[in-house]
Specification:
The chain is mainly beta. It is built from 3 helices and 33 strands. The longest helix is centred in the middle third of the chain and has 7 residues. The strands form 8 sheets. Strands 2, 28, 29, 30, 31 and 32 form a 6-stranded antiparallel β-sheet that branches.
């Protein structure tokens, strides 16, 4: 039997996720005097904050297991300041490894995403409860919706722009129900909990929401103890288990789900989904396979990198049409959050390299015009790699294509990190502003724009 990836005594201190710009930083910093190229738009007022993995000890078994660290840029009247903070959960305070956190839903790395809902900033990771932080990124405490949330919370909830509801799910790899659906009203009250039947436990990282439905992705990264004995990992890609999409009314239950078969694949992140008559349109970053060699095998070459695809679920015919939109290797897709679950004309992604030895961030950001089927490319420059692009509308009532695209970038030769501000309507031109961080910002996961 191979060593388990969860055995912290066998950490590979030369692993890819501990090298270069994946490596953690040690300091929590406050800075108000930042180096800026260009001019910050005066209408940009709010907080850009990104979460990511930053192991406190300097080492972790896996990229996914580092302590959560928030990096925030606060914009006020043409000025900007920076600060970063650990999310100080028991996982941080007690310097736990992932095995030690199992069984304690509060012991979250809190390292994957951060959102704001009902006045609360929530730092998220999919195997534990969310943690509340304040606007200054200081940790407040675990958030379990007044004791009503008894399981974990996905790192990819959805906030409905029409109702203000927060919709999310949790999955279990150990016991039934393997999936549970939750609905929180605009006031932040948990009002619905629905167990969902699955034939086996799967790793469901993300999902889809429309105006009236949720769409679960039952894809074949499965939990298998036989696989654990072979590879040391309890997770693996098993295409023979099949793949399907489950459509359920947002206020529905397990009995209301309709399942639709699709080709085996994996999707870490959808772009968006919406209804079109009696059809549901989904844009997703689909990859042919994932974690073929187990949980450590995040990157396995070209087939484990996503491309943008369009899935059309015909609710009348009971079938799904699958269409590849583009062949550019990409992931971390985002849309205008005001269009979440509604018709989307534009979307943004970051590229990933396909010929590297390990997971490698790309050198371009992509903008998709989904109506005219066009792709625009923002070249980050020589020896510069990017991060997730976040769209910020210029005003509350500006058009879907009228705003700024914010994203972190890393200058490899200078070992410097910067936040880019790109005009969404002039996407291929240089950024209107580049804001240099006072310290390197490691590659991370997801972030949000929170208006002032």
């Amino acid at each position: 039997m191979k060593q388990s990836l969860f055995d912290s005594t066998t950490v590979d201190r030369n692993a890819w996720h501990l090298q270069g710009n994946w490596a953690p930083v040690k300091k929590e910093v406050n800075a108000s005097e930042l180096t800026i190229k260009g001019k910050i738009p005066e209408d940009l007022n709010g907080l850009y904050v990104r979460n990511g993995m930053n192991p406190r000890s300097g080492y972790s078994d896996h990229w996914f297991f580092g302590n959560g660290m928030l990096h925030g840029f606060k914009f006020e009247d043409g000025k900007v300041s920076y600060k970063n903070r650990y999310v100080k959960t028991p996982y941080y305070e007690k310097d736990l490894d992932i095995m030690s956190s199992i069984g304690d839903l509060s012991a979250s790395p809190a390292n994957t995403h951060i959102i704001k809902h009902a006045g609360k900033f929530l730092a998220l990771e999919e195997a534990h409860l969310p943690w509340e932080v304040d606007e200054e990124l200081e940790t407040r405490g675990v958030h379990d919706f007044s004791g009503k949330l008894k399981g974990a919370m996905t790192a990819h909830p959805r906030v409905c722009p029409k109702t203000g509801e927060l919709l999310f799910f949790s999955y279990s790899m150990m016991s039934e129900p393997y999936l549970t659906y939750y609905r929180v009203n605009a006031k932040g009250e948990l009002v619905q909990t629905e167990p969902i039947e699955l034939p086996r436990p799967v790793m469901m990282h993300d999902w889809n929401v429309t105006e009236n439905f949720v769409v679960f992705m039952d894809l074949p990264i499965v939990s298998d103890m036989n696989l654990a004995a072979e590879t040391g990992s309890p997770f693996g890609f098993k295409p023979e288990c099949g793949a399907r999409l489950g459509v359920m009314p947002r206020d529905g239950a397990n009995k209301d789900i309709k399942w639709f078969e699709i080709e085996p694949c994996y999707v870490f992140h959808p772009l968006n989904s919406y209804e079109e008559g009696n059809k549901i349109i989904l844009y997703v970053c689909k990859q042919k396979e994932a974690m073929v060699g187990g949980f450590q095998d995040i990157y396995g070459g070209d087939t484990t990198i996503g491309r943008l695809w369009k899935w059309t679920i015909d609710l009348d015919l009971g079938a799904v049409t699958e269409e590849q939109v583009d062949d550019a290797p990409c992931d971390f897709p985002r849309v205008d959050e005001r269009k979440m679950g509604l018709r989307t004309d534009y979307g943004y992604c970051m590229t990933l390299e396909t010929q590297a030895e390990s997971l490698t961030m790309g050198r371009h950001l992509l903008k998709y015009d989904l109506v005219n089927k066009k792709r625009l490319t923002h070249d980050l420059g020589k020896n510069v790699t990017g991060g997730e692009p976040v769209f910020v509308p210029k005003s509350e009532d500006s058009g879907e294509d009228d705003g700024w695209v914010l994203g972190l970038a890393y200058e490899e030769e200078e070992a410097k990190s910067k936040l880019l501000i790109i005009d969404s309507q002039d996407f291929e031109s240089p950024p209107v502003a580049e804001i240099y961080s006072p310290q390197r910002i490691p590659y991370g996961a997801h972030g949000s724009w929170i208006p002032k």
